[in-house]
Amino acid sequence: MRTMFRRALRCAVILVPVLAHAQQHDVKIEEAWSRPAIQGGTGVVYLTIIDTGAPDRLVALSAPVAAKADLHESFTEQGIAKMRGVATLPVAAGSKVTLSPGGYHIMLMDLKQPLREGDSFPVTLNFEHAGLVTATVTVRRVGRAAP
Fold first, then answer.
1. CA triple 128-131-136, angle to 5 deg
2. In sequence order, what DSSP letters do the residues of 90-118 get, joined into one string?
3. Per-residue pLDDT tens for 90-107?
4. Contact, 106 vs 114, CB < 8 A?
5. Which of 32, 63, 113, 119 could serve as 137's disulfide partner, Cβ 3.0–4.6 Å?
């Protein structure tokens, strides 16, 4: 009986820090949506990242519907609308980061298929600490308000 108790205690001592570490990096994705786009063209994904754990950083993206997925930022400089690629995106602990029109967004280059209203597809976000988080993106018609 004493041996079983010791083994259980050892397992608990080992598992508690591992579970605590895993819970520190809780990231989830909400409201993932896209606009219709043609095959071979460029698509876009908007979504909200919610970090309920420790600070993290978005470091990579992928989507099976595109040859390449990158993080971009839209901004205005001296009255001129511009866009640039962004290598990483910090996500503060206990905060939300919204990728939306006119700001940060995911660019889908060289679409392997058309994106039609009502379609859905996965997008995978790779975070420095939380690892891979996959969300389902819904294609919404042009002119429809964001969720």
1. 120
2. EE-TTEEEEE-TTSEEEEEEEESS-B-TT
3. 999 999 999 999 999 999
4. no
5. 32
